[in-house]
Amino acid sequence: MKKITDNLALLYSAVELRQRVEELGSIISKKYENKDPIFIDVLNGSFIFMADLLRSISIECEMDFIKVRSYSGQKSSGTIQLLKDVSADVKDRNIILVEDIVDTGLTIKFLRKRLFGSSPKSIAVATLLYKPSVAKIDFDIDYIGFEIPQEYVVGYGLDYEQKLRHLDSLYCIKVN
Ligand code: 5GP
């Protein structure tokens, strides 16, 4: 019988991911020296990226989590649902939103708008992956790990129907 893992094609290995995430960590650490940033992880897909990114940060910082849902299966539902809000008071804080992937950009637009409502000092976005051919956004993404083609990707925190998040590399998945 064919297994779901038979449909995977390697995109970035664990080593390549680690190297790039360390580079981002060092760039962000330089930029945010003495700015006491708060990293906000967008659950679920970015939990591994967040954990690796934070271990590459060499300055004082805080972290928090927000959870949204926008996808069902391989398609964006077009509506964003807030499942868990941040716990921290982000007024006057320098926020770095940590996303696994910016695809249509709907999620990140929704989150920026919502967080700007809490009067932070600044909001930057760090995403591991960016699909430039799909994203429709009118602001810059500050930190991008990799620009990728319009493929559905899994592993390193990203799921296919809630599975495959545990894979330590990133793969394109083909399902009929
Ligand atoms: P957007 O709102 O930018 O269209 O999508 C953002 C969310 O959709 C991401 O945080 C992620 O959870 C999910 N998503 C978008 N593209 C992919 C993909 O290629 N693979 C997986 N696993 N999730 C994706």
From the N-terminal CA to the C-terminal CA, the straight-line distance is: 15 Å
User: What is the CA-atom radius of gyration, in angstroms?
Assistant: 16 Å
The overall strand count is 9
The number of helical runs is: 3
Strand content: 25-35%
Low-pLDDT ranges: none
Question: What can be said about this structure in brief?
Answer:
The protein is α/β, with parallel strands linked by helices and 176 residues long. The chain has helices at 14-31, 47-55, 106-116; strands at residues 8-12, 38-43, 62-72, 75-84, 94-102, 122-130, 143-147, 153-154, 170-173.
Keywords:
176 residues, alpha/beta, 6-stranded mixed sheet, 3-stranded antiparallel sheet, 3 helices, 9 strands, 22% helix, 35% strand, binds guanosine-5'-monophosphate
Characterization of the model:
With 176 residues, the protein is an alpha/beta fold. It has helices at residues 14-31, 47-55, 106-116, and strands spanning 8-12, 38-43, 62-72, 75-84, 94-102, 122-130, 143-147, 153-154, 170-173. Helices cover 22% and strands 35% of the residues. A six-stranded mixed β-sheet has the order 4-3-2-5-6-7, sandwiched between helices. The radius of gyration is 16 Å and the shape is globular. Strand 2 (38-43), helix 2 and strand 3 form a beta-alpha-beta unit. Helix 1 packs across helix 2 (47-55). The structure holds guanosine-5'-monophosphate. Guanosine-5'-monophosphate binds at residues 45, 70-71, 76, 99-107, 152-154, 158-159.
